[in-house]
Amino acid sequence: QVQLVESGGGLVQAGDSLRISCTASTRTFSRYTMGWFRQAPGKEREFVAGISSSGGTTYHAASVKGRFTISRDNAKNAVYLQMNKMKPEDTAVYYCASTQRYSIPGDYDRQSLYDYWGQGTQVTVSS
What we know:
The protein is mainly beta. It is built from no helices and eleven strands. The radius of gyration is 13 Å and the shape is globular.
């Protein structure tokens, strides 16, 4: 069982930047593919970004590409999402997720790939 805890959410203005974090309670964090998803009010949860176990490969949703960057620090058991040039439509609860299943970047957006999920952190962008 892996526990994922997100942090760093908050209220920002359009155009601002914010970095959210997710820490994992496992000694084998470096074996996990990690993903960020988000769910806005009244909408389904959607993929934001994914990163391979080594951090060498990343994949971002078209809606955030060029503005958001996923990264990880395996020594700290942490994955990050740097969000720049934020928009009101980025308002959502952001979740991190993890899996040890074999995957390729094209799989990162599949929610069924992931075995463990955090509780989420609220990000609100005001206009």
